[in-house]
Design a protein that fits this description.
Layout: E1 2-7, E2 13-16, H1 19-35, H2 39-52, H3 88-101, E3 104-110, H4 116-135, H5 138-152, E4 154-160, E5 165-169, E6 174-176, H6 178-183, E7 188-197, H7 210-217, E8 222-230, E9 235-240, E10 243-249, E11 257-261, H8 274-277, H9 279-298, E12 303-307, H10 314-325, E13 328-332, H11 349-365, H12 370-373, H13 384-397, H14 399-419, H15 438-443, E14 449-455, H16 462-474, H17 483-486, H18 492-496, H19 501-516, H20 527-543, H21 548-572, H22 587-590, H23 594-608, H24 614-624, H25 630-637, H26 646-649
Helix pairs in contact: 3-5, 9-11, 19-20, 19-21, 20-21, 21-24, 24-25
Length: 658
Amino acid sequence: MKSSTEASSSKREKVTLTQREIDLIRADAGKMESALSARDMRYLQSLNRFLYNGGRAESIRSLYTYPSNYLFQGIDDGRTGPLPSINIGRSMALTLQSKLIQTKGRLFFSASNGLWETIKVCRNSQVYFDAFIERDELNDKVKKSVLDGLVFEVGYIWVDDETKSTIKLHPWQYYVDQAEYDYGCLSRCMIIQDWYPIAEFEDRLPKGGVAAKSLEDNPHITGKVLRYFDLKRGVRVTFISGEFIDAIKIDYKCSPVVPFYYNDPVKGIYSNSIMSNTRSNQRLIDETLRRYRDALILSPANTILIPKTAEFSANDSLVKTMDSLVGNVVPYHPGAGLPVIMTPPPIDPSYITHLKFIKDESFDQEGISQLSAQSEVPSGVTAAVALDTLQDIQSTRFQSQVDNLIQFYKNIYTTMIDVFPEDDEILPMRLNRANIKWREIKKHRELYSLTSSLASALSKEPKIKLEQIEKLQAQGMLNPNQAAQLMEIPDLESAYSVATASYDNCRKIIERAIDEEKYDFFNVVNLNMLMSEAVNTLLQLDAVDESPELLQRLVTLINIVVEKMQGVSTTQTPPAPPGAPPPPESVQDTAMNGAQVQAITELAEKVALAQVPADVGRALITAAFPNVPPDIIAQIVGQAPQAVPEEINNTPATGILT
């Protein structure tokens, strides 16, 4: 195997394989496909039970099928008509899917122990992934994969490095070696897509090949596309209907396919699903419904007694007609005594009780309550507190699935980081934006972590929604002018994105100061916020032993902010009108209190121990105690005050727009 200089559409190099290598890959692919073909019957049963309650058999691979209700009117044994349908598995799967997707979340790149480069990488990554979720419609694909996991046992998301997008796969389209998967050391994996449009590979088809000729004859032809990933040698091989197409070099060692399991496998790749868990109980329900249906149809609707005459009369004709239409008609002799009219129930009530018992136990087994599945308040529960308690209990029961969903998102993120081309930029080039590539994210992998922050939508109840918005407003997270507008916005994330403009601008000023040594900013900047963020960034970077050069740039920015804060304070304080001389100040009024003295003392000790740079110490004291003269601050810190650099003195005090 050797590399070629020709690059693929995804900037990957093509690889030249020998015919023997191609034959070995083709044989191994066939072996994996054959080994996992046994699962097809199980998936077929789950699919048809979910869609048709077991009343129709449809191929799981063919995409050219009839609509779901075509030639299907319910299970009919030809004797008493169609069987009533109660599909507990389908009800559970849709209920639990709805429960899980109600949990809206966001993953954050946390670089609390990272250096400045790590912080920049995390910030760019956060921007990219937040935009990617919307652009790629990832949440919708995750929702469908979750339903696959509930119905079939597992759902898959394929992170395609060629298109830099995610693709939802069916469970029967992904193949691995079971032993390798169980031990966590995959050496290869495979994706098979039947009925795939060959035109998507038009630029990659070998000239004169079978696929190329077929495409010339029919531009809409489809075929079986097989993608084989050799993770050890770093090559992706593509076949179409058995014909070798190409081999592309890849630089990742992990599978590009991310699974979501309803329950994690005990061993191998197989697990259980809601449809498989409820299969036995569903068959009992079907049998009970069949008996109930037969009894209801075959039992008379009414029992009617009609006087019988000795000779043929109109009553005899009426008996025959009514007996076939409204139930059981019994002729009687009027002189034989008084008739007893009785219409017995079609079936013993114990059957109905048994049916309800099986249904309730099936829902309890999966931890799904009447409140969720049927929008029905459980019997005996009337208080709102009791309903909240039931929902809390149910949420705890589903916590395992919620954790799996969170981990599913994390695995998608990490897989994207692993498989996307290293030389591609995280964000498109733009003026004043850091040029960071995917290689940098991998390089800083040990210095950041992915954390989740789950949130639910605003309440649908107007009163509760208003209380939530007022609480956000009181916490300073929401602009009061947009409170009325948010009453029409269902997503809580919109409420959290209102009051971030000033913070984002402060972070950008700090970034320019560190990366480009630019200290200019608009005079409308929130100086208090900028001061706080600059000091926090300085302490954070100093705690991880950042380079003194970067720390000094932050110190310079802090000094400029302090100078501007003092200038604003002087400008906003008008001179006092002339008048009588002020009374002599008492020492008690001008002296610092004990807490202030203690704070300055502790800061001076940190400067003396070199825990805080002297420039930072002077800046902090000046900001906290503006009435203290500079020479006194210099004596406290232990150094003479430094002159402001010439380039800073030339900076206008009112900002760059002067």
